[in-house]
Amino acid sequence: MPVDRDDSIITPAEMSAIDRDAALSGIDSFRLMTSAGTAVSAAALRLYPQALRFVVLCGPGNNGGDGYIAAAALHASGAQVAVHALGDPAHLKGDAARACAGWGHAGEPLAKYRPRPGDIVIDALFGAGLSRAVPDEVAAVMRAVGSEQLPVIAVDLPSGVDGRTGQVLGESFHASHTVTFMARKPGHLLLPGRTLCGSLEVFDIGIPQRILAAHTSGLSENGPHLWAGQAHALDPSAHKFKRGHLAVFSGGPLATGAARLSAAAGLKAGAGLVTLASASAALDANAAHLTAVMLKEIGDAGALARWLADKRIGAFVLGPGFGDLETARQYALLLNDRALVLDADGITAFKDDPSLLFEAYAQGETHLVMTPHDGEFARLFPDIDADPTLSKVDRAIAAAKRSHAVIVYKGADTVIASPDGRAAINTNAPPWLATAGSGDTLAGIIGAHLAQGMPAFEAAAAGVWRHGRAGAKAGEGLTAEDLAAAIEPLPA
Ligand SMILES: NC(=O)C1=CN([C@@H]2O[C@H](COP(=O)(O)OP(=O)(O)OC[C@H]3O[C@@H](n4cnc5c(N)ncnc54)[C@H](OP(=O)(O)O)[C@@H]3O)[C@@H](O)[C@H]2O)[C@@H](O)CC1
Ligand SMILES: Nc1ncnc2c1ncn2[C@@H]1O[C@H](COP(=O)(O)OP(=O)(O)O)[C@@H](O)[C@H]1O
Ligand SMILES: [K+]
Predict the structure, then answer these.
(1) What are the binding positions for AMP in this chain (predicted)?
(2) pLDDT tens sequence across 135-150
């Protein structure tokens, strides 16, 4: 039966381990394949009752096995079905060979498939086992199906999409619907994979939850389940000092807007007090624009050190529009016993000696959140960035472990990762969030959460989610000012 889309995400390697454990506990693997293939045929009939023909493209592994089961079920329902196989079906093994025997008709080779109007393509070429770029004959079929604009139902994943990374290996199908089994894989949520799946259905093929739970790591889709236990930190009835004091560092006189966006977002996101810390040259520009946000003159490391005697300032945002990299370095190192969101220039400031920053924040509970976009990530973690074998999730986790910081690796598929290995993929950000100052707003929201005492991972994950919600609420064409105004209360 279809299950509610649960928040957990499993990698193809975890899926294999689950599969092995299921077999060890006596679960019949052919029954799982039958359940999977039947779910695909049910989706095909439900979505395309008027289809003239279902064309099932079957690969050389168990994904192909699911395809043969689907073909047999569609045929039994009275539909017209054609099967085209990649490779010689006589070489199929195990459950896939049995499924092919159950189909029982002579199939045609894949290369002989000529798409025709009215076809519904069922893509059972490769799923979790795709290990390299798809062969040329497969790529040619993908292009032919694409140019005819035929609907494609993908079994487990659109063939060509790497389930671990979401990257396309050579070429891929662009599915209108994907039926996956048990839980989503990273490739369903990471880009570009997410855009190639169409609507996504997660079907429960009957592997017990206990086996699934034993093999799932700390990866999930970002959502309230991650911080529900921490939402009390944002109690709106609390005294303003209890709701936290956030400080944001301003840039110079010609670059004050970014920090004000962070500060405004921090206030709207629930910090009790927000202070903009500004060098004297930028005080007038800031004073002319501030009302609820307070202003404090901080011009150098000495002034900051004296200000830090006030222990009520719980969290800081450093980087948006800041400009002066040497001062940013000094400030970040001075702040190492406070919660800090380091963004933009604050990140770039450490490009020549990242370990200086990482060592400064290595002690105690994680209290540094870094919010790099691709370029900033590559500046701080060039070797991790350059490793083509790593997914965006792998890269974010490796960076978090090395830096002792929560990493918010931004983009349309922002990944939030903790040094303890937990990670979340965010999916609620509309494309129009890519606007000047949007990242500054995000830094302010996360800063507000830290100021209110939320742990770093939860603060960051909740911040990214609220930022996405605000983007959806403000709508297409938003500016960063609209975004701050659209921040909604954090759901309990
Ligand atoms: N786990 C479960 O519980 C359940 C899993 N189920 C289903 O099993 C699927 C996973 O099956 P799978 O492991 O057999 O992998 P699959 O995607 O069929 O591909 C492997 C084959 O492709 C080949 N191959 C790979 N890349 C290639 C390339 N570029 N070009 C050419 N060949 C290439 C590879 O060959 P090799 O790399 O060994 O040369 C091998 O022959 C999963 O997605 C789901 O649909 C369901 O039945 C329900 C229960
Ligand atoms: N295509 C996209 N879809 C959704 N969100 C996006 C997209 N591109 C960027 N974002 C989000 O917009 C924000 C941009 O931040 P950033 O790159 O720091 O820009 P800026 O410095 O202009 O504020 C990030 O939160 C990022 O995740
Ligand atoms: K597939």
Answers:
(1) 410-414, 439
(2) 999 999 999 999 999 9
